[in-house]
Amino acid sequence: MLEVSGLDAYYGDARALSEVSLTVHDGETVAVIGPNGAGKSTLVNAIAGLHPHRSGRIAVGGTDITGVPAHRVCEHGVAVVPEGRRVFATMSVYDNLCLGAYRRTARAGHKQRLDRVFDVFPRLRQRVTQPAGTLSGGEQQMLAIGRALMAGPTLLLLDEPSLGLAPVLTDEVFEALGAVGAQGVSVLLVEQDIDRALDLATRTYLLAEGRVAGEGPSADLRGSDEVRRSVLGL
Ligand code: ATP
């Protein structure tokens, strides 16, 4: 579904990603964990076409999307849930969700998609007329994910969905992400919460100083002291 190979990205002269390669297979949920500043957000943004990369290749569903701008990446079935959620505070939950389906192809089947989002996030159904700005942080994260799902993606990219959320709401968000994966959507999740990432993903990459420092089945990484040291700086 997603193949990234040899990706390099910079901020000015500072290198943020060095030869990053990773794959997400069809229907798979993959996590990227790493400490602050490891390059996780840069990786998501580079795949989404939001940050330029200097070299490397990105392919989605076998199609090369290297250098495709963000507004066209979605045409290849990629949806992004950015760090910090960024819902439209004065617009209703319903209108925020509709924004995710603005593309013509996404508009077909609108009702079914809305129902699937509400199945995954029943809280959103109860709050459908409420301005998004009045939702709790966790509910806003659910809305941001729901909005991305309204585009009917085959690949969902998530940047730190647990950020700033109370543990109980993080649980709910991660449970919902499990349901999204079960619906057949491939997921690439960038996350600092190691345990939640390892629990959700079948495979996990460890990113450190812009490089892939390790990779494997999440079950194998769960007990690794090296992973904890690297991510948590212990
Ligand atoms: P965090 O978990 O703290 O969000 P991260 O793993 O997502 O960190 P990035 O935000 O991708 O890491 O940052 C990677 C590197 O690029 C860091 O050294 C960071 O300081 C640098 N960087 C990020 N954004 C910019 C920017 N706009 N200008 C310059 N340098 C940046």
Report on this model:
The chain is an alpha/beta fold. It has one domain (2-230): 3-Layer(aba) Sandwich (Rossmann fold), CATH 3.40.50.300. 37% of the residues lie in helices and 26% in strands. The strands form 2 sheets. The protein has a 6-stranded mixed beta sheet, with helices on both faces. Strand 9 and strand 10 (211-217) form a beta hairpin. The protein is globular and about 45 Å long. The structure holds adenosine-5'-triphosphate (ATP). Residues 11, 14, 16, 34, 36-42, 192 line the site of adenosine-5'-triphosphate. Belongs to the ABC transporter superfamily. It holds the Pfam family ABC_tran. One of its GO terms (molecular function) is ATP binding. This is ABC transporter ATP-binding protein.
Short synopsis of the structure:
With 234 residues, this protein is an alpha/beta fold.
From the structure above, extract its key features.
234 residues; Rossmann fold; 4-stranded antiparallel beta sheet; 11 helices; 10 strands; binds adenosine-5'-triphosphate
